[in-house]
Amino acid sequence: MKIKLHIWRQSGRDAQGEFKTYELGNVSPHMSFLEMLDVLNEQLIADKEEPVAFDHDCREGICGSCGVVINGQPHGPDLETTTCQLHMRRFKDGAEIYIEPWRADSFPVLKDLVVDRTSFDRIQQAGGFVSVNTGNAPDANSTAVPKRDADLAFDAATCIGCGACVAACKNASAMLFVSAKVSQYALLPQGGPERPIRVQKMIAQMDKEGFGGCSNTNECEAACPAGISVKNIARLNREFISASVASDEKME
Question: Is residue 201 very low, low, confident or very high in pLDDT (cuts 50, 70, 90)?
Fold first, then answer.
């Protein structure tokens, strides 16, 4: 199959970017989207041109580093699928494909399709952890957890931190990401001791990073390759209100 690619090229964080057009022939429908980009880069290198920079690591839909916007959709047209797991058979012969990086001030473009997502790291560092004494691991059954809570916590923990939720939101909100990281601890007894301060610190860091407020359009859930539910955002709001009320009562 033949395809025409319109790819965002930007040499650096402060450089002005633009779309550049490339054509590829003999693209196998069995190729993954990233394998297709590999073929393009091999062609560019052979022509002594600068290859397209894009993020990737595991190529198994696990690490969350491969995200790009494909024809206006983060990770492309398939639901709950990362860019690396998207295959070229999803596109028609002769298709024109627009590829661009996540668009958010909090995710500045480093080069071409690569963005700086360390803002997510700083949010997690602010409170996304549990402080416990180290030592021998406790028996798995020593702390009883209701199955429903355990299932919901595991569902929240499947967030891979790719940033698709931010790219899909018109306000570039990180609420789905933060709510997943808060929920995975709030639902388990191990997260209880730091529960109030955790949500306050993580939301404060989210605001400091410049992410927007929730748009309530649920585009984040639709774009999420892990299928994280917006119900976690409702839980995040409850956790924050509860922690804020408790803080106010202590001050009185």
Answer: very high
Mean pLDDT of 135-159: 86
List the beta strands (DSSP E) in 26-141.
69-70, 73-74, 95-100, 109-111, 114-115
| Spatial separation of the C-alpha atoms in residues 209 and 29, rounded to whole Å | 40
CATH 3.40.50.620 given to domain 3-100: no
Q: Residue 158 has which token pair?
A: 């499947």
* Rg from Cα positions in the chain: 21
Spatial distance between the Cα atoms of 176 and 136, rounded to a whole number of angstroms: 34
For the question of whether the overall pTM of this predicted structure is more than 0.90, the answer is yes
- Give kind and range of the element (H or E) at residue 177: helix 175-186
For domain 117-131+143-251, give the fold: Fumarate Reductase Iron-sulfur Protein; Chain B, domain 2 (1.10.1060)
Q: Rounded to whole angstroms, how far apart are CA atoms 54 and 65? A: 9
User: Which residue ranges make up each domain of the chain?
Assistant: 3-100, 117-131+143-251
| Per-residue pLDDT, 108 | 97
Q: Average of pLDDT values for 187-215?
A: 95
* Amino acid, single-letter form, for residue 83: T
